[in-house]
Amino acid sequence: MRLMWALLSVSDKRGLVPFAEGLLGLGFRLLATGGTYKTLVEAGLPVTYISDFTGFPEVLEGRVKTLHPKVHAGLLARPDQEEELKALGLERIGVLAVNLYPFRETVARGAPFAEALEQIDIGGPAMLRAAAKNHLAVLPVCDPEDYPRVLEALTEGPTPEFRKELARKAFAHTAAYDAAIAEWLAGEKFPPEKFLVLRRESPLRYGENPHQEAALYRVLGEEGPLLQAEVLQGKAMSFNNYLDAEAAWNLVSEFGEPACVAIKHQNPCGVALGQDPLEAYRKAYEADPVSIFGGIVAFNREVDGATAEAMREVFLEVVLAPGYTEEALEVLSRKKNLRLLKVPFPAQGPYLDLRRLRGGVLLQDADTEDPSEPKVVTRKAPSEEEWADLLFAWKVVKHVRSNAIVVAKGGQTLGIGVGQTNRYAAAKHALKTAKEKAQGAVLASDAFFPFDDVVRLAGEFGIAAIIQPGGSVRDEDSIRAADELGLAMVFTGVRHFRH
Questions:
Q1: What values do phi and psi take at 90, rounded to 5?
Q2: How far apart (Å, rounded) are the C-alpha atoms in residues 30 and 47?
Q3: Nearest-10 crossing angle of helices 160-186, 147-156
């Protein structure tokens, strides 16, 4: 009786040689293509070249090498078809290890069309799908991380559940591959068919509420700061933790200066700049010492021991930063339930924002850019200090749920009006929170003023300057009110709705 074949044809050579050695030890004969064959020969392993197996040479510059009846019959023959297989003089392939040409990576580096086209694998997906369909007789292996498990399963005898798991992974692998090719050929941001390939990172204890099931998924081919973050301590992140942490990191990444952001329910409750993380944290805390309780805090600088000591005074769910000193880690380790994340890079650059509907989705460019060109529309212009605060408040208001108003001064938020059903109510909330501190402060609005009531309310609280998109048919009413009250007002020409 001749030993069963294991066919290896991989672009990713990680773990290939040890896997092949393990297969040989289990009594398999090795069969390989091109670069895989070369790697195994160089490792001194006995291996048969695919053309010697099929009796047909590789043709068309390697485009046709495994598309042959001897290969596909060996992969597709069911256990009850053994006699037919033998009568045809064909042999069974019991293990197939295939990972596909690096198409996605080729496109990502901006390769020319012709080069990318050549990186569309044909034989690999065909073999993988054949083996996955016939997984009760063949083990389809597409992930090098599975090699040790495959060898262990072959030693003990693969269970039906393990075979089914490998088949599922193989079909998911080829489906994701085809999706990437289809989108590339469409060449559109919003093609007729949009494929989002999601890979589960981890199940979550529950969703927004305990009666909702949830899981965290990664979008294949994309990178995100939180998905790359290292959890240094604390319980596993929850559904709500991820939402709030994303909001915090997106906002803190807006600033070049040392900054601290406190988030509650995806909205900022305190945002501040400082000479160092400690000053930024203290100012962010002072902005709203009530709402920060149980919130999430993000820094865009390494957290030091002094800042960590200051944070010990309040209950926080999560802290995010690009790094922590040893002293900071020692201090924060005493807060056992605090989740501590080391985030490797800022949240920058465009991406597509997805909102779910029943039976559909909405896709849009995420509001990451700010193509505004602020211009003064009142007789009075902002002072240098007011300009700095206006631009600071404008960055913050972009991350606040509409209707949104931010009052700020000295690189610190003083009051934030969040998610109100009318702009006047949002302004009233923000200004009443700021109280007497609003005197000489600035006010930012995510959208224009349909009436002059917000300007007049701002004047009552002593606001010195306002920044807003402009574009209302009643802009002149607001400008006239600002001039009457001696306020400076700036139009950006850009709005930042967040629904």
A1: -110, 160
A2: 5
A3: 150
Q: How confident is the model at residue 273 (pLDDT cuts 50, 70, 90)?
A: very high
* HSE-CB of 107 using CA atoms within 13 angstroms: 16
Contact by Cβ (8 Å): 481, 474: no
Give pLDDT tens digits for 97-121. 998 888 888 888 888 888 888 878 8
Alpha carbons within 13 angstroms on the beta-carbon side of residue 441 total 29
| Numbers of helices and strands, H then E, in the chain | 19, 21
**DSSP string across 334-390:** TSTT-EEEE--S---S--EEEEEETTEEEEEE-S-------EE-SSSPPPHHHHHHH
**Catalytic (active-site) positions:** 133, 265
Sheet of 375-376: strand order equals 375-376, 488-491, 465-468, 442-445, 405-408, 413-417
Residue 13: partners with Cβ closer than 8 Å, 6 or more residues away:
35, 36, 39
> What stretch of H or E contains 244?
helix 239-252
pLDDT, tens digit (0-9, with 9 covering 90-100), for 326-357: 999 999 999 888 999 999 999 999 999 999 99
| Locus of tokens 């295939």 | 98
| Length of the chain in terms of residues written | 499
Chain centroid to Cα 4, Å, comes to 43
Neighbours of 214 (CB within 10 A): 15
Q: For the residues of 388-425, what is the DSSP string, one character each?
A: HHHHHHHHHHTTSPSS-EEEESSSBEEEEE-S-SSHHH
- DSSP at 59: B
**Residue 490 token pair:** 């700036």
The whole-angstrom separation of Cα 378 and Cα 398 is 23
pTM, 2 dp: 0.87
Q: What is the pLDDT of residue 83?
A: 73
Token pair, residue 283, equals 């100012």
At residue 206 the predicted structure's pLDDT band, cuts being 50, 70 and 90, is very high
Where does the pLDDT of residue 184 fall: very low under 50, low under 70, confident under 90, or very high at 90 and above?
confident
* Cα distance between residue 449 and residue 426, in whole Å: 12
Alpha-carbon distances of 379 from 376, 460, 480, 486, 490, rounded to whole Å: 8, 19, 10, 8, 11
Q: Which residues pair with 97 in a beta bridge?
A: 8, 141
The number of beta carbons lying within 10 Å of the beta carbon of residue 76 is 20
